[in-house]
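Quick check before the chapter quiz. The format below is the same one you will see on the exam, so make sure you can read both the input and the output lines.
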Amino acid sequence: MKEGPRANREIRAPRVQLIDDEGNNRGIIATEEALLAAEEAGLDLVEVSPNADPPVCKITDLGKLKYQSQKKAAEARKKQKTIEIKEIKMRPNIDTHDYETKMKAVRRFFEEGDKVKLTLRFRGREMAHLELGMKLLNRVRDEVEPIAKVEAEPKLEGRQMMMVLAPK
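Here is the expected output.
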């Protein structure tokens, strides 16, 4: 199957609604007549709206039309932002300075529009003090409250406690 709209001899409809190269509506005419008019203008007859009854065709430069649609598609792709999930790993008894550094990274991720997955790893006897981990995750939640929302509440999976935050 060919890409893009049908043009010139590919147009199968016996009659078409014709719009000339100046953008004037010429009404419903025979396809052959429309093709001749396009040839006279040195341009192509391009099917703009194939599902209309009769199909709407325009006299225009097919190469130029394809180029513009490619440019439009490229522009749309450039504007798209893929949302990534960034992971920040911490320990329940994290030092204040280390905590501040991690929080700076969290804020930066939110500014870039990414989600953040906070992972707290418990080792050995720390498993007896899960409330410390919970307290830490609640502290993080309260700190980023103005710029982010909780997407997945803190939950314990084995020796790890996880929470997912998304930018507002």
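If your answer matched, good. Helices lie at 31-41, 62-79, 96-111, 130-144.
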